[in-house]
Specification:
The protein is α+β, with helices and mostly antiparallel strands and about 400 residues long. Strand 9 and strand 10 form a beta hairpin. The strands form six sheets. A five-stranded antiparallel β-sheet has the order 12-9-10-11-13. Strands 4-5-6-7 form a four-stranded antiparallel β-sheet. A three-stranded antiparallel β-sheet has the order 16-17-18. It is about 40% helix and about 20% strand. Helix 11 packs antiparallel against helix 12. It has twelve helices and 18 strands. The chain folds into three domains: about 130 residues, no CATH class; about 60 residues, OB fold (Dihydrolipoamide Acetyltransferase, E2P); about 140 residues, no CATH class.
Length: about 400
């Protein structure tokens, strides 16, 4: 992808009519000047196929000595030689010499504007160095105000930078409740429940705001909620989601379990296997089961084959099929429909590998297996639906109670 897109403030071209940079035709004088420039600015050894931060380059335009514009299938940017990169003020300089096409591209444009005068922009026209420099500096002041001030020594005034104005606004309202989300009120259709957050303290609150007033707000990200004007809902009860239940199991009985010699070897090997948890602690599988606890036994599908394991929260502790069967004191967490779908997945893999003449029979088996799965899943959903609906109604009732208890702060 070459650098393109809508022009920024004064850039030649109209939004929506971007196009990749192209070279102007060079004459003999240009060639002689290029040798002198190369001595000053060095070279960049980047061509089509070269590695870039965004993948292999599918375009590489050497627009001037020491400056290459590259594009990939997904992104693009500019690569500067060490000599050119050293000329970028430190607050704006990327040590790598790479500048992405999204906004950083304006950095080399600002400080190497002369290098871009033979580039054809979105409309196919070239631009003067002064135009390129002015436009780029304006963008940098707008989007990188802190670095711009350090690089240029200039002070940015209110109204001269979008990002600086955002910073000033946030500082001015760091102790106010600022809009952080909204939802329809359960009890008062003409009101909206607006969530606010105080940046300085992290405090949050929910307030009933008249819909007629809320709808007039143009930039809701700057909506200030006055707690002495709007009714505030009492805090929600603790709704921290409960994590998976972990249970420990005594494995001493496995010593006398009737297992074949291969199954016994697989079990002992798995129980000795060491696992590292998210906190960096290392445990054997036996220690995890007996001291830390696990959730359930589970099965995953991998290319039509079953992968056996134990789940501990979001962790999957892989074991052999023999160990999985031996640990039958740990509940099998699969639903009946998930067991049925394992057959479907297995048949999918068999169909893919089967000879052409055998595929139709396997497809018929898959259709029957999928019908069985669908029936089981529909039954499970029918059993689960009342619980979901009851939980949703309970949540709505709790929200309605909070809205009715809303009061204005004294």
């Amino acid at each position: 992808m070459s650098i393109n897109g809508p022009a920024h403030k004064g850039q030649v071209g109209e939004p929506g009519h971007g196009g990749h940079f192209a070279h102007a035709r060079h004459d003999d004088t240009d060639v002689l000047l290029a040798f002198a420039e190369q001595d000053k600015w060095g070279q960049v050894n980047i061509d089509v196929g070269s590695r870039t931060p965004w993948g292999a380059a599918d375009s590489a335009e050497h627009v001037a000595p020491g400056l290459v514009i590259v594009g990939t299938g997904s992104h693009g940017g500019v690569k500067l030689s060490p000599e050119r990169n050293a000329a970028i003020p430190a607050p704006l300089r990327n040590r790598s010499g790479w500048y992405n096409e999204d906004g950083e591209r304006y950095i080399p444009e600002a400080f190497h504007a002369d290098a871009y005068t033979k580039v054809r922009w979105g409309t196919g026209q070239t631009r003067t160095a002064e135009d390129i420099r002015t436009n780029a500096l304006e963008y940098l002041r707008d989007q990188y105000p802190d670095q711009y001030e350090k690089a240029t020594g200039e002070s940015i005034l209110p109204g001269q930078s979008v990002e600086r104005d955002k910073q000033l606004w946030k500082q001015a309202h760091e102790n106010d409740f600022v809009f952080a989300g909204s939802a329809t009120a359960e009890t008062e259709p003409d009101h909206v429940v607006v969530k606010g957050r105080v940046a300085a303290t992290g405090e949050t609150g929910e307030f009933l705001v008249p819909r007629s007033e809320y709808n007039t707000v143009i930039d809701r990200s700057k909506f200030i909620i006055d707690p002495t004007k709007y009714r505030q809902l009492p805090p929600k009860q603790d709704e921290t989601p409960k994590g998976p239940v972990l249970n420990t199991y005594d494995l001493s009985g496995l010593a006398s379990a009737p297992l074949t010699s291969p199954a016994r070897s697989a079990l002992e090997k798995d129980l000795r296997q060491r696992w590292r948890d998210a906190d960096g602690n290392v445990r054997t599988l036996r220690e995890i089961i007996e001291r830390d606890g696990v959730t359930e036994r589970t099965v995953i599908q991998e290319g039509g084959k079953r992968g056996y394991g134990l789940s501990q929260g979001s962790s999957f502790l892989r074991v052999s099929a023999a160990t999985w069967k031996a640990l039958d004191m740990i509940p099998d967490g699969r639903s009946e429909s998930s067991k049925a779908y394992e057959k479907v997945s297995s048949l999918d893999a068999r169909i893919e590998k089967a000879a052409f003449q055998d595929r139709q029979a396997l497809r018929d088996k898959r259709a029957a297996a999928y019908e069985e799965y669908s029936a089981l899943r529909e039954t499970e959903l029918a059993e689960e639906r009342p619980r979901w609906e009851a939980a949703a109604e309970q949540k709505k009732a709790a929200q309605a109670a909070r809205e009715r208890a809303a009061t204005i702060r004294p």
